[in-house]
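Example record for the data management plan.
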Amino acid sequence: MNFFWFPIEYLPVIILVMLVAFSVHEFAHAWTAWKFGDDTAYLEGRVTLNPIAHLDWIGMLFLLIAGFGWAKPVPVRRSRFKNPRLMSILVSAAGPLSNLLLAFLFMLFIDLLSAFHVFDNVSVSFLDRMSTFINLWIIINLALFIFNLIPIPPLDGYRILEEFLPVRIRIQIQQWAQWTTFLFLLLIFIPPLRDNTIGPLLNLRTPIIEGMAWLLNQLFSFAGGSVFYRGF
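Corresponding structural encoding:
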């Protein structure tokens, strides 16, 4: 499965899964920052699972036309944290980790249902639709977990790396933040640029995701393994 261009028949499910995944991701950022003493996101109504609060219409448009989108960034003021470096790292990591948790908990839930034979008497067509939904849920959430940890602005991985950089370098990068974000989008959406720059790194997502999904099956397989996950 290509993370950037999906078959059109999967689009309704992809939008649903993306809305949930994005909302939980941004909620995790906002909630963690709020608990650590920064109420900026809380006052803006971002400590919520309501997708409307996190929806970025341009990001959603890109999702519809390219299969890749984004949500509205959560505002964070690290100066309000008692331990700015540690708490900033935890706030940045909370988003990707929430997507990993979604994948784990969902597979656990499905395996529990399988263990109690809930799906034994359902139709083949229902199982096929359920399998598609489960696969997309697992792959999209694992892909968001992995992708957001890439240490490139404006991704969460860079926000984590930033806390370990010297102040001088951090300031220099911040001065170019707008252009680095624009460059990042070019690298993502223009195939020749992507293939010769971050493409090899992005291509690692397939074996990593497949390996993580296999691990989920091994850890949470109460019924001899999930009968749904098949990969794409």
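Summary line stored alongside the record: The longest helix spans residues 84-115.
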